[in-house]
Structure of KIB1-4 beta-propeller domain-containing protein:
Amino acid sequence: MAAPAAEAPAPVAAPVLPPARSKDADPARLQTSPLLPAAGWSDLPPDLVRRVADSLVAANDLDCYMDFRAVCSGWRAATDDPRSDPFDPRFRPRRWVILDDGDDLLLLNAATGRFLRKRIPLLRRYHVLAATPGGFFVLADRYPSRAACVFNPLTGVLIRFAAPVPTKKVAAATVVFGRSSWPTLTLNLLCDSPSKSYSATPDMASFQEKEVQLPIDCHISLKAVRGGVYADGGGAAQGYRHGVSVIFEIFDLIQSLHVHPSMFYAEDLPVAGHANDHTRFFIVEFGGEVLIIIKLQRCVKVFKMDIGSIVPVESIGSHAIFIGHHRCLAVDTDKFPSVESNCLYYVERLGSSAYICMYNLKDEKDERISAGAVDFVKLHELFVLAAHRPFTIIQLLSSYTINVWDSQLPLQQGAN
């Protein structure tokens, strides 16, 4: 006879836990003073709004400042409008560089390491002549006026000039703001002619042409502009000017390195393998000081310009310098973790390709750091680095130093 089936044990009832006490249910937390009603973001005190806005201006993140003002009328009332005073030094771009000049501009705040992708349809209505080291655009009206304009891409402020732009090809430009009680602005154009420059203020009817007596002075000025020495009113080195004695000191320095000075002054990229491909010369703004960077074959020399003398520099501390054929840029490696401190980066050509190299100033050794050859091709009369995406920070900054925004006005004239 089969044994009777064992009875299943009765299920044990789950213990009933007391309800959890929510922090939000605390009456003390929910109690609101009837004298202080809940306020929205638009009701923030004006002094607090100004403190936040001032922090954006201090970092020169002017695009964020403009977005901040656009939130509501109360925030606009509590902050200053950059359009009301285009000469206000707080709202000038400082150390912004343009890494990509396509339909969407890629800009970089070299002081903070912040990237910005920005579409600016206004640029299609003008001829772009140049982009200054600080971040201004120099524009020209479409024919027939050709009037010059200075455009701030971060605030949208456009300063118009009465003078038409010279028909010469613009190689570089500077925007210098006066320091007198009466606000002034001078636009300086360095053209491809080795002995001429042009300058104008907004109310002048024409650009003043200046004939440079010493051709070496024009070349040194061009190297200083492209090295960021003329900092568009935002840097300590803005007032730097070359005296005759300084010019000859630089000339003697170059000769002491047993290199003919003419090798430093060619604006076109040299033929690969030629000796000129290894020699480059720039005057660079560096933390308020002026450095002379001389790139030789597998060697880089750095000097500092003191009053009446030029002294060697053995260390650039936590900074790095990128040396190109056309431009030179110093960055703080604390803002760019992938960039080595106390090093100088440059592009070494090899046929139609190139390698990115790094020179350690302390060890006096250089090495190739690119994984393989990077294409070095000519597009629209410009040489660019063409690597597989995504680009590294080092590739972007290296490309910036060899690629310059070409003046569109002569190109348009040639097309016509």
